[in-house]
Amino acid sequence: MAKNDVPSSLLMASLVLSVWAAAANGHNITAILDSFPDYSVYNGYMSQTKVADEVNSRDTVTCLVLPNAAMTALAAKHSLAAIKNALRLLVLLDYFDPQKLHDIPLGTTLTTTLYQTTGAPGKQGFVNITNVRGGRVAFGPSSPGSKLASDYTKSVRQIPYNISVLEISAPIIFPGLLDAPTAADSNLTALLEKAGCKTFASLLVSTGLLKNFQSAMDKGLTLFAPNDEAFNADGVPDLNSLSSADLVTLLQYHALLSYTPKDSLKLADHPISTMATGSSGKFDLTVSSQGDDVTLHTGVDSSRVANTVLDDTPVAILTVDSVLLPSELFGHAPAPAPAPSSLPPSPLPSTPAPAPASKSAKAPSPLPLSPPAPPSSSPAASPQAASDKADVKNSSGAAELVRSLATLIAVAVAALWLLLM
Ligand SMILES: *[C@@H]1O[C@H](CO)[C@@H](O)[C@H](O)[C@H]1NC(C)=O
Ligand SMILES: *[C@@H]1O[C@H](CO)[C@@H](O)[C@H](O)[C@H]1NC(C)=O
Ligand SMILES: *[C@@H]1O[C@H](CO)[C@@H](O)[C@H](O)[C@H]1NC(C)=O
Ligand SMILES: *[C@@H]1O[C@H](CO)[C@@H](O)[C@H](O)[C@H]1NC(C)=O
User: Fold this and answer.
1) What is the pTM of this model?
2) I need a surface site. Which of 64, 91, 269, 295 has the fewest CB within 10 A?
3) What is the pLDDT of residues 77-98, one digit of tens each?
């Protein structure tokens, strides 16, 4: 049976995702369009690209739908990633019924769309709606002087003031909209480098994880790529001090084995499993959102999801502003790594505290992992030595905390005793 071949984590992830989708309340664009055979091609692509989920997660939207002939013409020449961009530009994040369309103040306006939420520069993700002569309403790209080549043709359905569905004659296209990178012909490292994530890209290469990510691209992959500044931010531990197993775990923590673009993340009301999540669970992320801002929380830090670099079902590459630090590895104050030579000798007998490091190293990986090579730039004599040092640092930190707490209590007791005398 083919189903048995699907890694269970993948199955779990998709199950959880479909539960979230079903939990989203309000309208359902797929169900609305099901009763209009004229838009069946459009409806099919809305589901296939998951733009339907994005529409359903919004309280107030207007969908500009294309009749079958126009949609077929658009789809024939373009990749799914390009079609997705085109569909997103047809979802206005405001409620326009026919009346409002004809009553636009001053006869022309720019309105934002779902495409803008992917991190489009400037007003690229806006569309121009203009009342032209003879009661005609026309749509076009937002750039000044654009041709308004798409006409409002008829009203399809309204649920005031949540969703309005209007038919238009042609897609709204600006130059470059349909040049979306596709997963199939993408060089992952080149894409990441171009998006300002050179450090992340080079770590994927040096650890050998790139191959795992590439092989996951057929079935479902979402990457949260920290930009280069994120790796230099305060509080980010020195990656050279991590064992290579922990480094691999940290990188896997930035990947999901499912297709979860930004708007699908918003629907997440459960912690989401990452590629670092083993059979014991853990290494998960929680998601919060406010409007179009999506934030990932690790328990140690949080990061905003910034731009969409690639969105081609089933692959999404998103940039994040901060390195995601899993609490399983960094729960005990990551503290900017002091120079190894200045480490005080540990005053405690080395307690056999269960180091999260060794646990994560043994956690079963959902994909066959090629043996991780130590980062080429690592000055550590051996990855194990580096991890031992990290453990020493942690236990001495704990000892210091205990000592200062003890001192504090002693001082407080003494003060109280003096007061009572
Ligand atoms: C929306 O409607 C379609 C069919 O009309 C259905 O398959 C789908 O599960 C619905 N989605 C939600 C989130 O209820
Ligand atoms: C919309 O496009 C038309 C034609 O290019 C232009 O005259 C009008 O100023 C634009 N409207 C806005 C609000 O930019
Ligand atoms: C419109 O959306 C609001 C907020 O999501 C919801 O409470 C309301 O029931 C919806 N109205 C209709 C008619 O579905
Ligand atoms: C992908 O791009 C990187 C750098 O941009 C380059 O070094 C590598 O050779 C490319 N890989 C392929 C398969 O083209």
Assistant:
1) 0.67
2) 269
3) 899 999 999 999 999 999 999 9
What would be the CATH architecture of the domain defined by 183-330?
Roll (2.30)
Q: Which ligand 3 atom is at minimum distance from the Cα of 60? A: 2
Asked if residue 24 has its Cβ within 6 Å of ligand 1, the reply is yes
Of 94, 104, 108, 146, best ligand 2 pocket probe by most atoms within 8 Å of the beta carbon: 108
In this chain, the answer to whether the domains covering 3-179+383-420 and 183-330 adopt an identical fold is yes
124-177 per-position pLDDT tens digit:
999 999 999 888 999 999 999 999 999 999 999 999 999 999 999 999 999 999
The CATH superfamily of 3-179+383-420 is FAS1 domain (2.30.180.10)
Q: How far is CA 320 from CA 6, 106, 256, in A?
A: 29, 40, 14
Two structure tokens written together for 113: 């769309």
At 216-228, the pLDDT tens digits run: 998 899 999 999 9
Instruction: Please state the atom number of ligand 3 nearest to the C-alpha of residue 27.
Output: 14
**CA distance linking residue 372 with residue 356, whole number of Å:** 18
What distance in angstroms lies between residue 101's CA and the mean position of ligand 4's atoms?
A: 48
CB 190 less than 6 A from any atom of ligand 4: yes
Ligand 2 centre to CA of 147 (Å) is 9
Which atom of ligand 1 has the smallest separation from the CA of 34?
5
| 217 alpha carbon – ligand 4 mean position (Å) | 17
- Each domain of the chain, given as residue ranges in start order, spans 3-179+383-420, 183-330
Q: How far apart are CA 260 and CA 314, in angstroms?
A: 8
C-alpha 224/C-alpha 209 separation (Å) is 14
Residue 97 exposed, middle or buried by CB count within 10 Å (0-12, 13-18, 19+): middle
CA–centroid distance, residue 191 to ligand 4 (Å): 10
Ligand 4 proximity of 413 Cβ (cutoff 6 Å): no
Instruction: Please state the three-class secondary structure of 145-205 as a single string.
Output: CCCCCEEEEEEEEEECCCEEEEEECCCCCCCCCCCCCCCCCCCHHHHHHHCCCHHHHHHHH
> Is the CB of residue 64 less than 8 Å from the CB of residue 91?
yes
